[in-house]
């Protein structure tokens, strides 16, 4: 035995070609990686890995075109499909009313709290709000199994608090990782597995039959993140077909909502729905990744520098156009158009600030329901009552599929219009302070955190990173300074140093020394100052959280 791990903590009964490289922290997790479950995910991996790799290659090719000056737009080749008359399969009754959805990582206590929160849906997250440590991934699957079969409970000994499910709970959706992330701790035929297929496959394998016996045979339900093109949706559709076939589940029983959260995908919404038409549960405005993707896509265009992050709100023309087009598209195809996440969360120790935060959430949700959204997201149980009321007051039916928004006329220029606002030193400082603290949490296994009274997760951290990168790369001139100041590596270096000092003062010396702040700062600074922008912060950061069983230590 070395470092607390023993070969006994590895599941030993893996089928041929599968190697589990991460330790299991308790024997009850073994069941998640049963021989049959691993065989199921390995079959998916072997069938779909080539298509996943092909699609990632297409992303690189498309990005090279944007880097040489092109901008994304509607595809002339699929015009007939966009203009044609077709619908997605009818939405199952159990998810007809999705007015408020709570989201959160697949953490045991939070799953119980979210399911009990009074929201219609809980989206359990392996993605933006989860740091994908091996333990979080496997434990998250176990937590979800226990939630689906209603045996989940949690004991908070320190607070003498016992958690269990209420009789009435939210409907469960699960968001697997995006196509770009690998699961290094499961090797299939000598290569790391595709994270998305591991998350989907293990969850589907263990839970499909429980869903079959309820919800009129529909489910499990999924959210699908970060796609860039309809050919990626076609892969998900084929994965769903194969999973249903293997488990003798009715075709179309799996339903999934696609997040439109990349700039290229906004030009592909009809096409994405078409590919998934038998499995679709609509689209969602993933605003935070969308803003991140906007910057990433135009990274080679020096004339497209974003203003401060706080000014890129949903009333900016490009974001308003995106949400309206999404609503029109979904309602033409007979599926839900879900709203996104306001970043404000309850502020316990400051009633005035709490009131302001609630007012901002109320205004955001009012805008969404009036625009025609069928529901929206909430980040915290303390917001469910408020958000529900806004939708109840303005949406008398279960949804607004009948509101077609034929008045909406959105062009490529609308979707690409630059947001207005100023670029400030405080914006650079805030991005840096938040980016470093978020990464420090992520490296220790926490994927969503409250920072300065806002929810921060991987998508919001990405905005901080790419905005800094863009300003440094193109020497953005800052507004509001007495003498002209442009952002440079030297200025950024000073900002990192000063913000590290501030973080240390804010979190205290003890926490600062025992945390991973210095490692996070080095990682964040490296990412912000690279000559060429990395596609995802989490790809670089993932290397820092991979922990192989020492006896099997090898290069990633
Ligand atoms: C860009 C996107 O993808 S958005 C979607 C992804 N992001 C998310 O899902 C973020 C979800 N939200 C969260 O993770 C949390 O609300 C945070 C990290 C922002 C704040 O969490 P905390 O600091 O723990 O909040 P707070 O202390 O006020 O929590 C109070 C209680 O509510 C619970 N709670 C807070 N948020 C949630 C949630 N989203 N789901 C379930 N329970 C929650 C806490 O566990 C705590 O429970 P307890 O009283 O039984 O101990
Ligand atoms: O996933 C949601 C987002 O806003 O990003
Ligand atoms: Mg996202």
UniProtKB/TrEMBL annotation:
GO MF annotations in UniProt: malate synthase activity
Recorded GO CC terms: cytoplasm; glyoxysome
Pathway recorded for this protein: Carbohydrate metabolism; glyoxylate cycle; (S)-malate from isocitrate: step 2/2
Record: active site: 175 (proton acceptor), 457 (proton donor)
Subcellular localization: Glyoxysome
EC number of the protein: 2.3.3.9
Residues covered by the Malate synthase C-terminal domain: 423-545
Catalytically driven reaction(s): glyoxylate + acetyl-CoA + H2O = (S)-malate + CoA + H(+)
InterPro entries associated with the record: Malate_synth_C_sf, Malate_synth_sf, Malate_synthA, Malate_synthase_CS, Malate_synthase_TIM, MS_C, MS_N, MS_N_TIM-barrel_dom
Domain Malate synthase TIM barrel: 171-417
Keyword annotations: Glyoxylate bypass, Glyoxysome, Peroxisome, Transferase, Tricarboxylic acid cycle
Record keyword Secreted present: no
Gene Ontology BP annotations: glyoxylate cycle; tricarboxylic acid cycle
Parts forming coiled coils: none
Domain Malate synthase N-terminal: 21-79
Domain of life from the UniProt record: Eukaryota
Record has Transferase as a keyword: yes
Top-level EC class as recorded in UniProt: transferase
Family: Belongs to the malate synthase family.
NCBIfam families membership: malate_syn_A
Protein's UniProt name: Malate synthase
Species annotation: Selaginella moellendorffii
């Amino acid at each position: 035995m070395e470092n607390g791990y023993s070969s006994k903590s590895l599941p030993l009964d893996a089928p041929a070609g599968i190697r589990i490289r991460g330790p299991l922290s308790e024997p009850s997790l073994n069941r998640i990686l049963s021989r049959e479950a691993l065989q199921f995910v390995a079959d998916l991996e072997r069938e779909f890995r080539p298509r996943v790799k092909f699609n990632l290659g297409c992303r690189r090719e498309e990005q090279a075109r944007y880097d040489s000056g092109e901008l994304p737009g509607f595809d002339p080749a699929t015009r007939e499909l966009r203009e044609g008359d077709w619908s997605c399969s009818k939405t199952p009754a159990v998810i007809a009313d999705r007015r408020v959805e709570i989201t959160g990582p697949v953490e045991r206590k939070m799953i119980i709290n979210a399911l009990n929160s009074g929201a219609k849906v809980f989206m359990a997250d392996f993605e933006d709000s989860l740091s994908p440590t091996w333990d979080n991934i496997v434990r998250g699957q176990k937590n979800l199994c226990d939630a689906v079969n209603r045996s989940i409970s949690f004991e908070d000994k320190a607070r003498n608090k016992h958690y269990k499910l209420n009789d009435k709970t939210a409907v469960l959706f699960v968001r697997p990782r995006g196509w770009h992330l690998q699961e290094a701790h499961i090797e299939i035929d000598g290569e790391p597995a595709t994270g998305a297929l591991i998350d989907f496959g293990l969850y589907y394998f263990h839970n499909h039959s429980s869903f079959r016996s309820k919800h009129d045979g529909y489910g499990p339900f999924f959210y699908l993140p970060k796609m860039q093109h309809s050919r990626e949706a076609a892969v998900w559709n084929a994965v769903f077909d194969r999973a249903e076939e293997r488990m003798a589940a009715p075709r179309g029983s799996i339903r999934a909502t696609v997040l439109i959260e990349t700039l290229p995908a906004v030009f592909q919404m009809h096409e994405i729905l078409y590919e998934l038409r038998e499995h679709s549960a609509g689209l969602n405005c993933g605003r935070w990744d969308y803003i991140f993707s906007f910057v990433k896509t135009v990274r080679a265009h020096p004339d497209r520098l974003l203003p401060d992050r706080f000014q890129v709100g949903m009333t900016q023309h490009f974001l308003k156009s995106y949400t309206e087009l999404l609503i029109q598209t979904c309602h033409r195809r007979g599926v839900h158009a879900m709203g996104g996440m306001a970043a404000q969360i309850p502020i316990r120790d400051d009633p005035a600030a709490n009131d302001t935060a609630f007012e901002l959430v109320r205004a955001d949700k009012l805008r969404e329901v009036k625009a025609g959204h069928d529901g929206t997201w909430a980040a915290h149980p303390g917001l469910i009552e408020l958000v529900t009321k806004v939708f109840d007051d303005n949406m008398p039916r279960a949804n607004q599929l009948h509101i077609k928004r034929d008045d909406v006329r959105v062009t490529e220029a609308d979707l690409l219009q630059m947001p207005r606002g100023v670029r400030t030193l405080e914006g650079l400082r805030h991005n840096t302070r938040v980016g470093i603290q978020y990464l420090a949490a992520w490296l220790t296994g926490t994927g969503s955190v409250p920072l300065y009274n806002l929810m921060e997760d991987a998508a919001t951290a990405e905005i901080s990173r790419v905005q800094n990168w863009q300003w440094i790369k193109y020497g953005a001139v800052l507004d509001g300074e007495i003498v002209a100041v442009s952002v440079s590596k030297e200025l950024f270096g000073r900002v990192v140093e000063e913000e590290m000092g501030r973080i240390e003062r804010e979190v205290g010396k003890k926490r600062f020394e025992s945390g991973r702040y210095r490692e996070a700062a080095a990682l964040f600074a490296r990412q912000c100052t690279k000559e060429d922008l990395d596609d995802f912060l989490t790809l670089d950061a993932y290397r820092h959280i991979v922990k192989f069983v020492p006896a099997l230590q090898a290069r990633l």
